[in-house]
Amino acid sequence: MSTRLHLRLRQPPALRVSLDDIVPEAGADATEVARRPLWLGREAVELGELFDVSAQALAGDATPELVIEGDCRRIDDIGRGMNGGTLRVEGDAGDYLGAEMLAGEILVVGNAGDLAACELRGGRIEIGGTLGDFAAGALPGSMDGMRGGMLIVRGSVGARCADRMRRGTLLIHGDAGDFLASRLVAGTVALAGRAGAHCGYGMRRGTLVFAGPAPETPPTFVETRHDITVFWALLRRSLAYHGGPFAALPARLPRRLVGDLATGGKGEWLLPQMD
Questions:
Q1: Which among 6, 153, 246, 266 counts the fewest CB atoms within 10 Å?
Q2: Which of 109, 187, 110, 112 lies closest to 98 in space, CA to CA?
Q3: Which GO terms describe its molecular function (predicted)?
Q4: pTM for this structure?
Q5: Of all residues in the chain, what percent are helix, strand and coil, respectively (each to 5)?
């Protein structure tokens, strides 16, 4: 039987806490979950000492759910490695949100910290607020960033977003910090706001769509005249589904630039041209 597990943070902890291994699961028992150990600095505490825990049975074949409520800016690894179910954060989240996630859905009502969706492999993550640095990139010491799935950010993102991203789709409704999509290997990144400095630095392949202000063009990107009529029609339609500035992308073919020529030049920028 599926379960909706509800964790309500009593008060923000004095130190950072990892919530790794706490994911939506069928048949979750509130008493057992409350006894699971968490590390608070060098001290092991039971989860129930930090959170009020309750569980509710769901009818039929409903998807397991996990709801986390409270100011969780110091709670890291929420949804890390998740492989199904639905996770909702009613507030802010800490670092490593949804890192290495395989499947399922995460919705954060507020903001999230650094390294969100790092090495995401599947599923869907939506952030109602802003993200910190290194979102959708590689974990420290790793070579590959986001590898699949979808990340939607309703606010802005920090620096180095989508660094070394290999696959998947990333939509940013706000602005992006410096080095957006640097060293991008593949995948699609769509930005509605302004891009910071060094956008697309060292990108090898992949697609960047600028639905808002056009960024400054580096000397290692050049304009091409390839026929992308079919590709643009399909991409425009898929982005429009997510609303906001993406719903108003013009049917007219965008300007297409390729680069970074310093690293092979197979990446592309699409800059829609308003009628």
A1: 266
A2: 112
A3: formylmethanofuran dehydrogenase activity; transition metal ion binding
A4: 0.94
A5: 10, 30, 60
